[in-house]
Amino acid sequence: MATNKLTWVPDFWDMVFSIKTFAAAVLALFIALCFDLPNPYWAFTTVYIVANPLSGASTSKAAYRLIGTAVGGAVTIVLVPNLVNSPELLTLAVALWVGGCLAVSLLDRTPRSYSFMLAGYTVALASFPLVANPENAFTYATSRVIEISVAIICTALINRLVFPRHAGPILASRIDAWLKDGSALVVAALAGRSADPTLAKTTRRLAAEAADIRMFTTHVSYDTSTHRQLVGRSRELQVLMVTLLPVISGLADVQLAMARAGHLPTDKTERLIKEVTSWLNSGDALPEEQRLSMLAQLTALKRQANASSDWQGLLILDFSAHLRDVLQIWSDCLALRQEIASGARYPRSRFNRRFGENTERPIHRDYGMALFSGFSAALAIILGTAFWIMTGWSSGGGAPVIAGILICFFATMDNPTPIIRKFLTYSLFAMALSFIFIFSVMPLLNGFSSLALALAFLFLPLGLLIAKPSTFLIGMGISTNIPTMLTLQSRPSLDLASFVNTNLATVLGTILALGVASIVRSVGSEWSARRLLRAGWADISGAARRSQTPDLQRLLHRMLDRISLLAPRMASIPGDSPILASDMLKDTRVGINVIGLQGQKGLLLRDERQAVDAVLDAIGTYYRDRRRLTEAQPGRELLIALDKSLDAVQSPAGSSAAQATRMALVALRHNLFPDAPEFRAVRPDALGQAAE
């Protein structure tokens, strides 16, 4: 209980962040008032919207916000004067623009997606107030860009000059934590403890963290610290993190296969495992001499196993290959981490990777959900505008704007209704605070200094809430509503009717967003998880059926990205769902081996190539069937094809392509058929009975 209480207690950096944010907001408000800008509260609100304890993150968000606002302002200038006499067309144009921009932002899925989303709802935010005065479109849009620019400049100056908190050290600590958990995962795999369910959760969490670290480096690139120069190395390290997870999973899988086959490791193998485990537990970089010694032991193990043609020998070959990959990739990870910590740079030839040097990171894109979310935002705006037009309510234009913005804000969630409901509560609380402030405090104020002092009592505590992840939504929901509700201007209005009308529109807009989200937009976690799995199965089926070699990097990163998206959904999926039995990391390993077969089959003899093609066709069929029925299992045709293909490339004296093909086939066999009898010879009748 004490620990929970301590999470609410602000520390030194929380207080510094709150003071800095308030100072930047007051400075932006002062400048906007001095130049008599139309809506100074936009400048004040923007500071809190882009606020972040890390100076780099705040700057990146501010830059993207400025770009989005400028684009949205330009579109407003085009749409409003030309369509103001056709309310239906203007409404449709604004709704389609907002929905389209939201769809693009969801497909982008990087920090710059904020620009696309903002370019969308800025048009709604700026267009509807201009319906009565379209001739002011240019002035209104320009003033909004200027006010937001003022806020961004003030935020950047304060963040960078006053107690700047850099993103670089945070990135380094997150990498250290990832490597620590990753080493524990490798040690568990080597110890044969991979069946522990907690390790599956750890794997999913590491996949999600590796994906998030990539996003986080965007903020580091806007930092002013020396870590900014190491963004490239950090992203290179993140590629290795993604590469490592299926390798560890494959190592654990072959360990289980060896245990099922009753294979006991030799004394030499046990000594090697202990040596590797000791090194991983130490967390130290591996001396070159020791690394070469371990590689020599693995080469000897491979040579010994290669002389054997039985199933145990093939499993040992697979084990040695995976352990070699772990050794090489982990060495590279530690070396890159040392670079990030010291700032030194090593020649690229130092790194020896199986999966190439391409740092491009293709991600999963769900076009259907992006379009569906865009449609929801457009529908909310259309319904809100129709209500506004039919009622003739002068302040009703705020309802569709708020509804569209909220749908955009929470579009990445499967079910945004709970958080929109919370946002409604925070809006009502902000309205109560604003009412008290306007009609009890503001009449007593005399000048800007007294206004700033009075605002401090409201916003300094809110800044402390924003600084804590556990209370961020509360602080942000209240702090971004109050400035608009107060309508902070050089000549403030104390009209009760205007206050009630404007803020009632905000409440109705939130209720409209809640209704659209609950009826149209909300989907279940199981439904979303199934879409992620089917997308992965479609990629593997496509890779198996493609005539040219697919790109391993693209498939690997997309599959691991899907695992990162799947991880937070697993906790809310019902216990009897077949989704829980699906292992996307296992599917990733299948995809890697499929691409390996595609890459090698052109170098094989005709009979060998035909046998491999039969395996690829069977795998493509299996994953195509899984898209239709999640519970589908690999059939006997695939097992027979695997064993025939293994028999075709069985000779230890075969070409390097045949040996690589054999390793991929071994991995596929014990991956897809863990309970099948050991491979010996091709006997279709016996294999059919075993598969059944």
Task: Provide a descriptive summary of the structure in words.
The structure is a single chain. With 692 residues, the chain is an all-alpha fold. It folds into three domains: 12-165 and 366-521, no CATH class; 168-350, Four Helix Bundle (Hemerythrin (Met), subunit A), CATH 1.20.120; 525-691, no CATH class. The protein has helices at 2-6, 12-34, 40-49, 55-83, 87-108, 113-127, 137-161, 167-190, 197-220, 231-260, 267-282, 288-306, 311-342, 367-391, 398-409, 417-441, 448-467, 472-479, 482-486, 496-521, 525-545, 552-570, 584-600, 606-628, 636-648, 656-672, 684-691. Helix 12 runs antiparallel to helix 13 (311-342), helix 15 (398-409) packs across helix 20 and helix 25 crosses helix 27. The longest helix is centred in the middle third of the chain and has 32 residues, at 311-342. The radius of gyration is 30 Å and the shape is elongated. Residues 1-5, 347-359 and 683-692 have low confidence and may be disordered.
What keywords describe this structure?
disordered N terminus; mainly alpha; 27 helices; elongated; 692 residues; 3 domains; Four Helix Bundle (Hemerythrin (Met), subunit A); disordered C terminus
State the gist of this model.
This protein has helices at residues 2-6, 12-34, 40-49, 55-83, 87-108, 113-127, 137-161, 167-190, 197-220, 231-260, 267-282, 288-306, 311-342, 367-391, 398-409, 417-441, 448-467, 472-479, 482-486, 496-521, 525-545, 552-570, 584-600, 606-628, 636-648, 656-672, 684-691.
Span from first to last CA?
54 Å
Helical fraction equals over 70%
What count of domains describes the coordinates? 3
Q: If you compute it from the alpha carbons, what radius of gyration comes out, rounded to the nearest whole angstrom?
A: 30 Å
- Tell me what portion of residues adopts beta-strand conformation: under 5%
The biggest sheet, with number of strands, parallel, antiparallel or mixed sense and barrel status, is: none
Poorly predicted parts? 1-5, 347-359, 683-692
Mean pLDDT: 83
Number of strands: 0
